[in-house]
Amino acid sequence: MTEGGRSGRRRDFFRHRHYWLIPLAIWTLVVAASLLWNVQTVQRHSEDTALQQARFISQMIETFRLWNARHGGVYVFADEDTPPNPYLDVPLRDLHGPDGRLLTMVNPAYMTRQVTELIDDEAGFSVRLTSRQPLNPVNEPLPWEQRALEWAHGGAPEYHAIESVDGREEIRYMRPLRVKQACMQCHAHQGYDVGDIRGALTVAFDYEPFRAAQANPMGHVVAVHLVVWLLLALLTVFGLHRYRGQLLLVEQIRDRQEATIEERTAALREEIRERQQRETELRTLRRALQHSPASVVVTDTDSRIVFVNRKFTEVTGYREDEVVGQNPRIMQSGRTPPETYERMYAALSAGHEWRGEFLNRKKSGELFWEEASVSPVSDASGGISHYVAVKEDITDRKHRDGEIWRMAHYDSLTGLANRTLFHERLDKGIDRARQSGESLAVFYIDLDGFKPINDTFGHDTGDVVLREVARRLQEAIRDSDMAARLGGDEFALIVAGLTRSENADRVAQKILECLRQPYSLDGHEVHISASIGIALYPRDGEYGSDLLQKADEAMYRSKYSGKDCYRHAGEDG
What we know:
19 strands, 17 helices, alpha+beta, 5-stranded mixed β-sheet
């Protein structure tokens, strides 16, 4: 269809009396879809917030239980609120103190029940301990708990749901309790093993406050979309009216309005993302302040240490009273690059989490590597109040990584670079030579007369000769050059910064001279020599593989020429 035909059809469209209803309906659908997506996002955010609160309560109570179990239960004075537990069948359940008052053991389950009663009374959260096989009838599972227990025994790590109860919404959460080694004192005689599910902790509370918290952002989302819709509706009708004679102008206006919708929607998404990021940082802080297997350091905004955990003391040797009030720089070794600290301070000043590594010093003076994650903590007004650092000693891993890299890149017999590292350094050397305009030489060296030494004296003696050859090669070249063992009795050199081929000849003559010197082996004096092939960049090739191949070919021509000599690539033998 021609451009004139398309323009004619557009003009026919605008002759209809209600032509504006179609584009208006399209805008309505677009705004409605955006509104639906943002409303669902706000609802999911509220549900995630309530679920995190339930998880925190459950994890807190489980931590109390583990503490109790690890201490084998605790004794308290028996009274009306804490009578002896009739369901606890262990020796020494009840004792009498020096004053004659009765002491009774409070095991994890008994303590959990009393803590949950306090939480229920003080905070309005319904927290229960339940099990398929409860010793205490109070712990008989409710119908919804029975369903959740089936999920837990089926392998689910947790269960949650929002259900209507007596005309109001309630969030319900269950986390299974698995038997740990510390729990076997009470549960071994019941037939449980470590790792079995003994029961579960359930948390239930009113969801209405979280639903109510949606009102403000929900109203904001609806208001923004309503304004956008009204703006689009007015502009569309007005624009289409003028479009009768100005089609191109209206198309430009439409593009601008689409950009406005995208900008407003992107702003809402960014706001939600930042809010989720802040909540993640708060959860990280809560976990760090628990009894962590990693080192935890908390500082104020003046970089003064206000808290360290036990793992920090074990790793660094500093006691808590020695570091509280001090600046963390007391552990600096002076080996960490200043740029590392600059990047960390820049990230933290911007309110972001920072991850990196430090080479620090213990109280004893010993150096050690730490991998750290440092996060800012915001107060109620949104300002930064503290910084939390969670750190792990990675010294052993650093040593292992360095040893693995060396094994992969160096010859175990001679200590020279192996073929892999040789090719890597050759490619980098060619890049530098290409930029500087200088030449680079590759020497391919094969020992003459080495096989008779192996046959006569054995491979152990041959290894001694190879190590001595490697030592002499290292002494014959500069620190900026490189020697490598390619395999067997074959070696290679990279000599950079050459300006003329005559310079390569002098290096070859020096190598021949040092290798033909006698070798002392168990009172015997033996002699070997070498055949050398030389290839120059860029004269003999542009790539490392080409240079090494041509140097190899030149080496064979030197062998055919009588050995103990050198030949250049392309040179007649």
